[in-house]
Structures are given as structure tokens and as C-alpha cells.
Amino acid sequence: MISSELETRLQAYGFISPGYHGHSLGSVLPAAAAALGQPEVLDKVAATTGGSDRARSAAAAFGLGEVDRVCVVLIDGLGLHNLRDNAASAPFLSSLVGDNTSGRTGFPSTTATAMGLFGTGSSPGQTAMVGYSAQDPVSGVVGNFVSWKDLGQPTAIQRHPVIFELLANAGVQVTSVGLERFADSGMTQAALRGATYLRASTLGEHVNAAAAALNTPGLVHLYWGEVDKIGHHHGPTSSQWRRALAHTDYEISRLYQALPPKTALIVTADHGMITTDPKSLIDISSNYALSKGVRSVAGEPRASHIYLNSPGSAIATAKRWNEVLGDRALVLAKEEAIGQGLFGTATKYAKSWIGDLVVAMTGTGTIADTTTAPPASLKLLGVHGSLTPAEVEIPILVVRT
């Protein structure tokens, strides 16, 4: 739980708290399990997910009722603010937006962390998927949780049960539809294992595969990443992005029309996105007050993990960073971030992945070490990861047949 002290600080920076309970991304699959009559599978992981009580509560809050089939569509990068600001490009999805459709993702508001939260129902303080990238506590190398480059075995890092697997073991038919390259990816193995994986290319093919899978009772998951990809390169207010949204809206509408009776369709996202000016990026390497004592930088330009040569200096270094950055960023020492609940309740193992400093950028600002950051990441127009409402608030849209 986020401490009241941190809540106050977040508000002062124009932030909102991440969501690990209630209307959060982590409640979507527990709610689906309850709607399918299997809330008890969550009791095996009750300590970190809230068990069957949370599952039933979430299903009621989302208005799922009892159904034979649940289809969960996760649209990467389609935050609630992005959808509301572009309602004309998404008439079907916008028609589902109401007073009870706002959810929250975790921190950082990024795909790797969000998929851990989505797939397990547990916070990043449990899954150890604490950002876009992080420094491996054993090797000391910065590994990437999206590509799983320079990381160990997925199940050795993300050690919590996966809801797809729990449902499949209980006899529920669980199907996941996605691109070929995600079928056996590290992220899939870490957070989404246990489903029968159907490979598709275009969104139309994804929809057709999902519709066919729904001929059998059970759970179907469809992931689509093109909206996020185009948003990164062109910005989430661009004409290219609006066209991608319009196409996505059309295909999801087509999926809805193909649903059999007693089916619930849930449309959600992993995070939102804002537009930045790459020219305004703060370069850690060119500012000695920031670079002093830094061993490595991980995460992404909106939400960074800073690892120090002397971890014991974290509090003093965080103070110096806050003085340098002022209202451009919230900088927390590791123990402060963990103790005040930014990553949810954290295990000793997950703590070892978190930076000695945790940096959340305000407004539309970004920060990076330009000598080590992937060059492409420094040129992105659409970004996410921090705690502004536009990045944290996601749609949780529900419609039943």
C-alpha cells in the first residue's frame, strides 16, 4: 500500500499513485477467473493477490457476472486519457467508457512491469519485473525485461505463479493470441505461460483466431502492440497514431460482433503515453552532480533505476539529485521507495533488482545517460513510465453478450 506520506509527495509533483488493488490491471485476470467460476485458483497465491475474495470483488466491480467465456484484449499503450482525447477515432471503444472504467497500472508504467502485474496479479515488488530494464543483482549487468536480453531464466527471476497456468491446471481452456516472436519469449514465459498460444500476424488475423478460440468455453487473451509502437515513433497525438487507433477500434468492434452468447469482453491496456520533446532530455553523463558515483542507469527516460558504486550513499545522493532536478523529477532512495510502497509489498529478492535511486520524471521531461542508453530510445516522441495520470490511468472496458 502506498504510504500517506508518499501520496502527498506524488500529488505535489502532479502524480497519482500506481494501482495494485481495486480497479487495477492486476485485478483483470482474477476477475476473469471469478466470472468463469474459478475464483478459488487465486487462493493458492492469496498472500500476494488477495485470493478468491479479491477475484470475486473485482468481477463484481467490473460488472462481469457469470459467463462461459472471457476474452481479454490488451492494447499496448492505449491509456484512458489517450482514448478519451481521441474518441472520434475509436467510436466503439469510446462507447464503452463510463464512470466505472478507469483503472491504474503499476510503477513504472511500462510494458514489462505491467505484464508481470497483469499475468500474476502481483505487484512488481513480488514479480521482480521492476522496469523496462534493471541491473541483475548477481551479474551486475543491465538486463532488458522486454527482450529478455542479458537476463537469466524467466522462471528463476519471476518466481510467482501465473494466472493462466493456474486456470489451465484447473481445467479451464486458456488461449493466448499474439505474434510469432512472442510465443516463447522471456516475457511470455515469465508472466503469461500456461496458455495455448495461437500465432497471428495482422490484427485482423488476431481477431479471427480469438473468435475461433471462443467457440470453446474458457479464457482468451489477445495482445496488440501496434498502437504503442506507432505512438513511440510519431507521438500519441499524431495522425499516424489516430489511424492505428481507428483500425484497432474497428477490429475490436468486429471481434465483439463475433462473440457467442454468455461471453464477457474486457478491453484494457498496460499503460498510457505522453508526447515529449527529445531535445529537452536531461543528460546524466554531462552533469557531474548527477553522474558522480553512478555505476549504471537502467529503466527508461521517464522512469529510471540508478545504481551507485556505493549503495550506502543512496540517501545523500538522492538529496543531491533532488536539489539538481527540482520539480522536474521525484527522486527516491531505494529503501524510501520500497518502504513507502511504490512497488507494492516487496520481497527481498525483488528488492535486489531495484535501483539505489528511483527517478520519476514530471511533466513531459525525460532523463538518460546518453553514453549508455540505446540511441533509439533518445529519439522517441511518445514516452511513458512515470506517474502522471496520462501514463498511469488505463481503460478497463467491459461488455457482455
TrEMBL record:
GO molecular function, one term: hydrolase activity
Name used for this protein in its record: Alkaline phosphatase family protein
